[in-house]
Amino acid sequence: MSAASTAPATATAAPGRRPYGFTELPSLMGLMTGDEKHGPAATSTLDVLWVLYDRVLRVGPETADAPDRDRFLLSKGHGPMAYYAVLAAKGFLPVEVLPSFGGYDSPLGHHPDRLLLPGVEIASGSLGHGLPLAVGTALGLRAQGLTEPSVWVLVGDAEFDEGSNHEALAYAGAAGLDRLHTVVIDNSSATHGWSGGIAARFATEGWSTATVDGRDHEALHAAFTAPHPGRPHAVVARVEPKNA
Question: Is the pTM of the predicted complex or chain greater than 0.70?
Answer without folding.
Answer: yes
